[in-house]
Structures are given as structure tokens and as C-alpha cells.
Amino acid sequence: MSGKLQGQIAIVTGGSRGIGRGICGELADAGATVIVNYTSHEAAAQEVVAEIKRRGGQAEAIVADIGKKADIDRMVSDVKSRYGRIDILVNNAGICPFRDFFDIEEETWNRTIAVNLAGAFFCSQAAGAVMREQGGGAIVHISTVTAMRGGPEQVHYAASKGGMNSLTSSMANALGKYGIRVNAILCGGVATDINLEQRKQAGAKSDEWASYLPARRGGRPSDLGKAIVYLTSPDAEWVTGALLAVDGGALIM
């Protein structure tokens, strides 16, 4: 494979399923060597790696719990030792255990923040140190339109992603002098495990909601992947601190 990201080393957290899987595929198609992070779904991660290799790309799977800083530091150190550099970090790993506002217990709150927000920060800190040494890189956070619109059983999730949005602008300011660009995607309407569960709880039919979007269809993981390729490529060298909605128009409804 060859493309805009030829020779780049990319880490995608939570890369074994859903949006992460789509992102890994698009990055590989653009020429990047993709590190597919997973926490517990090893078989799924290896399937992603095998599919990328079948298409002529390069990838490997690596286990790390993004809610634990020690795991993050080990993962980044292993990638640096193996490849000598890290050019792209996609902070995609996220959880959303649906809860009524009054039923969000401390453990659920803390784990959600640990994975979705603290995990993105500590991954960025560790990979960013490598990028600083080599003179630059690109970081993209996978956020959500829910951070702007809220959700009745997603208060903890929306709070973590709202923090991620603030993290994006602050990191762009802090890391720009090192040649590191930081952006976020506001995802909406992609058939992820989280969204499918939300629709099920709301009693919605599988794709009925999509007909109301300006784009008139639901999102695909590859839609996010294509946006990631743009944001991490030289085409976006003047784009940093941006919150890019990739949502079929959901945010403007």
C-alpha cells in the first residue's frame, strides 16, 4: 500500500471493534503501519491485523488497558522500542455504561473518566513525548456530539467527552511549538455498540433515525477513518485545535 501516510507509525486505542476498526483500516490503506490497541478483545484485534495484512498493509495488535497509566506507558514504550517513532495517535477507546442520573455510582463514574478522558490525556502525554523528540506528530481524539447535546443516561459519558473537547484546544496550544497538531472528531450516528444500545433502550428501529439526518444515512466506521486520514496527513498541516463534526448533520438538528 502507498498513500498520504506512507511510512507513518500510528497507534489506535480501542482499535479492535466498531469505529476503531474502521479507523485502523483507513489508516493502513493510506500507508501507515497501524498499532491496534485492545483491552480484552484479542481475537477481534488479531482479525483487524489479519485483514490489514491481507490487503497489503502493516499492522500489529498490542494489549493495554487505557484506563491504567502503567499500561499506557508500557504500550508506548514498546511501540517506540520496536519502530523508533510514533507519528499518529488516535484516542478512540471509550466506554458508556448507560445509567439513570441517580444510579451512576462512584465506580462507574471513575472508570468512565479514567478510560475516556484520563486515558486520552495519558496516551497523549506518553506518545506526545516521543513526537516532541522526533519533531512533530498528529493526535486525534474521538469525541461525540453527545458532549454538546447531552443524553439522559449518558451524563458521565458526556462529561468525559466534554472534557476531551477542552483537552483538544489546550493540547493544541501546549504542543504546537513542538510541531504536534491536536484535533478532535465529534462523532454521531455511527453503528457502534454504544449507539446500538442507546437506540435499543429508546425502542427505535435499527436505521429509522438516519432518515431524519441531513445526510439521509447513518454513519459508517470508515467515515470516521477517512476524516482521521485527512486530519493526520500533510493536507491538514494548518488544522489544529479543531472539533470536526462527522455526524451526518446531527449536530445542526
TrEMBL record:
Alphabetical list of CDD domains matching this protein: SDR_c
Assigned EC number: 1.1.1.47
Pfam families, A to Z: adh_short_C2
Superkingdom of origin organism: Bacteria
Keywords: Oxidoreductase
UniProt xrefs under Gene3D superfamilies: NAD(P)-binding Rossmann-like Domain
Annotated ranges, domain Ketoreductase: 8-194
GO molecular function: glucose 1-dehydrogenase [NAD(P)+] activity
SMART domains: PKS_KR
Record-stated family: Belongs to the short-chain dehydrogenases/reductases (SDR) family.
Cross-referenced PANTHER family: 3-OXOACYL-[ACYL-CARRIER-PROTEIN] REDUCTASE, SHORT-CHAIN DEHYDROGENASES/REDUCTASES FAMILY MEMBER
UniProt name for this protein: Glucose 1-dehydrogenase
